[in-house]
Amino acid sequence: MKEEILTKLIERTAEALGVDASTLSGKTNIKNDIDLKSIEMVGIISKFEEEYDCYIKYTELMHAETIEDAAEIIAKQIEG
């Protein structure tokens, strides 16, 4: 499931930033490589919550350094 989440997270992040998804990877640093605003992250998270019918704790995602870290946190929360 983590790979599925990672792929979707990269796509949704690229969409939120208005960039091509191929410019992002799991190793992309959220804080240093891209300027992802908290409002954009909330929008991305809400799509995961709707799709997987779950609640994702935004505060835990604040500790993620890379997109891959964020995908792992989201996958763990979805799997419960």
Give an account of the 3D structure.
With 80 residues, the protein is mostly helical. The protein has one domain: Orthogonal Bundle (Non-ribosomal Peptide Synthetase Peptidyl Carrier Protein, Chain A). Helix content is 60%, strand content 0%. It has four helices and no strands. Helix 1 packs across helix 2 and helix 1 crosses helix 4. The model has no long low-confidence stretch (mean pLDDT 93).
Furnish the topology, listing elements before pairings:
Elements: H1 2-17, H2 38-52, H3 58-61, H4 67-79
Annotated CATH architecture: Orthogonal Bundle
CATH homologous superfamily grouping: ACP-like
CATH topology description: Non-ribosomal Peptide Synthetase Peptidyl Carrier Protein, Chain A
Determine the structural class based on helices, strands and strand pairing.
Answer: mainly alpha
> With helices defined by DSSP (H or I, 4 residues minimum), what is the helix count?
4
Order of helices and strands: HHHH
Distance between the termini: 12 Å
According to DSSP, the number of beta strands is: 0
Please give the largest β-sheet: none
* Portion in strands: under 5%
How many structural units, i.e. domains? 1
**Considering DSSP H and I runs of 4 or more, what fraction of the residues is helical?**
55-70%
Features of this protein?
80 residues; Non-ribosomal Peptide Synthetase Peptidyl Carrier Protein, Chain A; 4 helices; mainly alpha
